[in-house]
Design a protein that fits this description.
Blueprint lengths: L13 H10 L6 H11 L13 H10 L6 E7 L5 E6 L5 E9 L2 E5 L3 E3 L8 H4 L2 E4 L2 H15 L5 E4 L9 H12 L11 E5 L6 H6 L5 E5 L5 H7 L2 H4 L2 H15 L3 E7 L7 H14 L2 E6 L13 H13 L4 E4 L12 H7 L12
Parallel strand pairs: 4-7, 7-8, 8-9, 9-10, 10-11, 11-12
Antiparallel strand pairs: 1-2, 2-3, 3-4, 5-6
Helix pairs in contact: 1-2, 5-6, 11-12
This protein binds iron/sulfur cluster.
Length: about 350
């Protein structure tokens, strides 16, 4: 699946837009005006940029595309979680998940169509990798949702379909456009990049001069089990991952969260909890425990609530700040990529009868 060929106006960072305007023999300061139309006034067509001349609007329209992902399906859970399935210009599908919690409204954003890392518990990995998302397709998820809801979201988590560090060039551009005051003006501390441990791009993330939160999908505390659950561990084993995370903290004093999906009888022993406590203390990291929720075709089991509570107690007794995250939206295709996964193996429209 090749990405749509024409560059989109929202693929461009402010500096890139200035350069593009210069190449068109236009004044670079127009870039700030264009950003204002795109990200403050949320205009949807070049024709709406009324502070620009008609000639410039036509020039832009001839060279640059202007599109948002199209909503293909939407599923809501009684717990308030909503999954949005988007159809991209080339027919690919991705999903974003909206998670309300008190005054927070968090969106979980996709960064790739599919994923190449094939974690055993994950729906996205099960269907393989199709392509990277463009910056415009990442930001498009935010713009669509904020426009549809009529309000800004509070937290932005790059933890949906795909491994953000495997598409770092485009994710970094999306972050730049989301963060810059001329763009969406979202504070870096309200954004979280999640990784399964793709260390090839880790130094570039570390070099980013922003207080972005880092979340590590850990899920196992021995190489033996992590190799089995997350094949990426065979390339970047646990000790390398933890050492990279230590370096990330040293570089910017930023906070790390460890995500740990608890799978019954597999990684839920008190030895596992001990190992997790050791890593968490070493990184001064918080731990989020998430009960595994069933993925079609995977032979894992959801743990009992009492077992999660015991696991949590064990961590807390070892002075680890631990939160049990509810497996939000478990009734509407729980793990990342399950909704979009229905369309990764086959082309075609979503099932009839469930329209946005
Ligand atoms: S958990 Fe993340 S890295 Fe692993 S297959 Fe799923 S999307 Fe990819």
């Amino acid at each position: 699946m090749a990405p749509p060929p024409q560059i989109d106006i929202r693929d461009l960072t402010l500096d890139e837009l200035r350069a593009e305007l210069a190449a068109m023999e236009e004044r670079p300061f127009r870039a700030v005006q264009i950003f204002d139309w795109l990200y403050k006034r949320r205009a949807a067509r070049f024709e709406d940029f009324s502070s620009l001349s008609k000639a410039l609007r036509e020039k832009l329209a001839a060279r640059i595309a202007f599109r948002l992902p199209e909503l293909a399906d939407k599923l809501s859970s009684p717990d308030g979680t909503t999954r949005f399935l988007f159809r991209l210009a080339d027919g690919g599908h991705i999903e974003s998940v909206l998670i309300p919690a008190g005054r927070r409204l968090t969106v979980c954003l996709s960064t790739q169509v599919g994923c190449r890392f094939a974690c055993a518990f994950c729906a996205s990995g099960k269907h393989g990798f199709k392509r990277d998302l463009r910056p415009s397709e990442i930001i498009g998820q935010v713009l669509f949702l904020e426009t549809a809801l009529g309000r800004d979201l509070t937290n932005y988590v790059f933890m949906g379909m795909g491994e953000p560090l495997d598409n770092w060039t485009n994710v970094e551009k999306a972050i730049s456009i989301m963060n810059t005051p001329e763009g969406l003006g979202i504070a870096a501390r309200r954004m979280t990049v999640s990784t399964a441990g793709f260390l090839s791009a880790f130094k570039r993330l570390e070099a980013l001069d922003l207080q972005i939160n880092l979340s590590i999908s850990l899920h196992a505390v021995t190489d033996r089990l992590r190799d089995r659950l997350m094949p990426i561990n065979r390339r970047f084993p646990l000790e390398e991952l933890v050492a990279a995370a230590e370096s990330y903290i040293r570089a910017g004093g930023r906070m790390i969260t460890l995500e740990y999906i608890v799978i019954r009888g597999l990684n839920d022993s008190l030895d596992d909890a001990d190992g997790l406590a050791g890593i968490a203390r070493r990184l001064r990291a918080k731990v989020n425990l998430i009960a595994y929720s069933k993925v079609e075709g995977a032979a894992f089991e959801t743990p009992a609530e009492a077992d999660i509570a015991r696991f949590r107690r064990w961590l807390e007794e070892r002075k680890v700040n631990t939160l049990v995250r509810l497996s939000k939206g478990a009734d509407i295709a729980a793990a990342c990529g399950q909704l979009a996964g229905r369309f990764l193996d086959k082309a075609g429209p979503p099932p009839a009868g469930r329209k946005p």
